[in-house]
Design goal:
Blueprint: H1 2-14, H2 18-21, H3 23-33, H4 37-48, H5 53-65, H6 73-85, H7 93-99, H8 105-118, H9 120-126, E1 145-148, H10 156-161, E2 165-173, E3 179-188, H11 194-203, E4 205-207, E5 209-211, E6 214-216, E7 218-226, H12 238-251, H13 255-267, H14 275-287, H15 291-303, H16 311-323, H17 327-337, H18 344-359, H19 363-375, H20 384-398, H21 402-414, H22 418-434, H23 440-450
Antiparallel strand pairs: 1-4, 2-3, 2-7, 5-6
Helix pairs in contact: 3-4, 4-5, 5-6, 6-7, 6-8, 8-9, 12-13, 13-14, 14-15, 15-16, 16-17, 17-18, 18-19, 19-20, 19-21, 20-21, 21-22, 22-23
Length: about 450
């Protein structure tokens, strides 16, 4: 049984995000082989514009051959230069050598415009994060870290079936040393251990980040492992071998391996490395079209996590991921839009992103959508009754989080049901105290409901 279980975990890890990892490169190649040239060109062009060298080479060739696009030697030459700049020389040199003698001043201006936008320098200025190897949050004197992991409750069905697994999570550690808003980014097997992992993070204790010796909020990621009793750490000796193989594949250009290796080195406790060391792998996978990698790059850029803090770059990566229906990116974009004092237009945009996440049956999308419908800043777009219904869909998976009861309390108060709102808010307050949270915000909302007043605002602004 031990060997079978360990093999199952490695098999699951090797399949992690396999469809998404090759979603663009594989489907583009398949479309080309099937002579669906327009589709292939569109897919390759999307990746080429993100700096993916193989795609840049293919775009150059397809322009010159007129495959899927009107023949355009000037554009082909420009993309061949860009691909060569990124190390793809063999297939691009003939294009450059044959076309160079025929270039006019007008064509050189057009080539320069393309290379300025999508060449290395242009992408570094506009899109690529400035990565800091060996760093987490460069502005902090000390990063946040787990100091006491909560006891783990093994899901009975997984135990019965002899299944082990891992869940990679990201979450915010507040100055009170407790986690908020734990989000599952990847899990293997999918969804089997998600709820149990959330409970572990919510109940664990952390040393908060310090800036000038003052506790500040910090975002970190970790991989929670679920290992059956009787399985010794020595039974996982092959993990290092597995990681070594994934690293080789990642460095050879396999986007799936790039994504997986980045998650493992930055998330597994026994290999814990700074976010800055994982970022180059995330960036490569993001350039290859992996939406979750694009989310991680965008999220890191927004926070300055392992890279320079650069909101415009972060937003662009998040938008790419969100457009591909990556729910975490959709939720984060919504929260970004709602910062400060959003107007009607901003609230409408945020709702659109959250509705898309919820429509995809994403629990985080539903959780945030319920909060916005219950207590959002635009009275015209509040819908407390619908908020209660949306929350009901996910309550089972979040009923260990005080925020779930706060959302329900806010919706009930909006409906004038203050007694019920007080009941839920008191439950949220007790849960928050039991978790060791600083509870001023919960107490303030309870005072509102006792005074028969509703409350509006950001229920995730802890």
């Amino acid at each position: 049984m031990r060997k079978l279980v360990v093999a199952h975990v490695f098999a699951a890890l090797s399949l992690l995000a396999a469809p998404a990892a090759y979603a663009d490169l594989f489907s583009a190649g398949l479309a080309y082989d099937n002579k669906e040239y327009e589709k292939a060109f569109a897919l390759y062009l999307e990746m080429a514009q993100l700096g993916q060298a193989e795609a840049q080479r293919n775009v150059a060739i397809m322009y010159v051959n007129g495959e899927g696009v009107a023949r355009d030697n000037i554009a082909g030459y420009a993309w061949a230069l860009i691909a060569a700049e990124n190390g793809i020389v063999g297939d691009t040199k003939p294009i450059i050598d044959q076309l160079a003698p025929h270039l006019t001043e007008k064509s050189r201006i057009r080539i320069q415009a393309i290379t300025d936008l999508y060449g290395k320098a242009g992408l570094e200025k506009r899109l690529m994060p400035k990565v800091f190897p060996g760093a987490n949050f460069t502005t902090q004197q000390s990063p946040c870290r787990m100091v006491k992991a909560a006891g783990m409750s093994y899901p009975p069905d997984a135990l019965h079936r002899g299944i082990q697994g891992q869940v990679y999570m990201e979450f915010t550690v507040m100055p009170d040393g407790r986690a908020r808003n734990p989000r599952v980014i990847y899990s293997v097997p999918a969804k089997v251990f998600d709820d149990a992992a959330r409970r572990v993070i919510l109940r664990s204790e952390f040393a908060p980040a310090l800036e000038k010796n003052v506790p500040v909020t910090c975002t970190i990621g970790t991989m929670v492992q679920f290992v059956m009793k009787g399985i010794a750490n020595s039974d996982y000796g092959d993990l290092k071998i597995f990681m070594s193989k994934e690293k080789k594949k990642a460095e050879a250009g396999d986007p799936r391996a790039q994504m997986l290796y980045g998650l493992m080195i930055s998330g597994l406790p026994q290999f814990k490395q700074p976010r800055g060391d994982a970022m180059p792998y995330f960036v490569k996978a993001a350039q290859a079209g992996m939406p979750t990698a694009q989310f991680l790059v965008g999220y890191s850029s927004m926070l300055g996590w392992g890279c320079e803090c650069d909101e415009p770059k972060g937003v662009e990566w998040l938008q790419k991921a969100a457009a591909a229906d990556q729910a975490d990116a959709q939720v984060m974009l919504a929260n970004y839009i709602l910062r400060g004092s959003p107007g009607e237009e901003e609230v409408a945009k945020a709702l659109t992103w959250l509705e898309r996440a919820a429509d995809a049956d994403n629990n985080y999308g539903k959780f945030y959508l319920a909060a916005l419908l219950a207590a959002g800043p635009d009275p015209a777009r509040r819908a407390p009754e619908r908020a209660l219904q949306v929350l009901k869909d996910v309550m089972r998976t979040v009923d260990d989080d005080p925020t779930a009861f706060e959302i329900r309390a806010a919706a009930l108060a909006m409906l004038g049901k203050y007694d019920e709102a007080q009941k839920d808010q008191r439950k949220a307050l007790k849960m928050a105290k039991d978790l060791g949270w600083e509870t001023a915000s919960q107490e303030s909302r309870l005072a509102n409901y006792v005074a028969a007043k509703h409350w509006s605002g950001d229920l995730f602004a802890f």
